[in-house]
Amino acid sequence: MQTATGTMPTDRPERYAKQLASHWAAKTEVAEADGATVLTFPNGNVLTMRPAEGALGVEVTVPDDADLPRFQDVVARHLERFGQRDELTVGWD
To answer: Would you state the pLDDT for residue 36?
Structure first.
């Protein structure tokens, strides 16, 4: 498995995690675990969002044979579109 982590500074991290989970609910399995929202896709990709003080922590995991940068881009584009009004961006570590 390949993993990347990132952060999206925001004063409303719970809102954006909930919005993305709702947006993808028909395509994924959504679960809550230890304060995180976890989306598991049928192709094995996993998105974990952890709201924290002043930021939304984002972790993406894909199978070894999958395109990690592509999944990072898809996740970031969706979150940034939802936070467009606040000019939010995801920064990857």
So the answer is: 96
Do the Cβ atoms of 59 and 51 come closer than 8 Å? Answer: no
Residue closest to 72 by CA, chosen among 90, 57, 50, 84: 90
Q: Helices in the chain by DSSP H: which ranges?
A: 13-23, 68-82
Number of structural domains (the chain) is 1
Beta bridge partners of 59: 5, 48
Q: In degrees rounded to 5, what are phi and psi of residue 44?
A: 100, -10
Question: In terms of residue numbers, what domain contains 63?
Answer: 2-83
* DSSP classification of residue 90: -
Question: Regarding beta strands 2-9 and 91-92, do their DSSP bridges make them parallel or antiparallel, or are they unpaired?
Answer: antiparallel
Is the pLDDT at 85 greater than 90? The verdict is: no
Does residue 33 lie within any of the structural domains?
yes
> Is residue 34 a part of any domain in this protein?
yes
53 falls within a domain = yes
pTM over 0.85: yes
Is 91 part of a structural domain of the chain? no
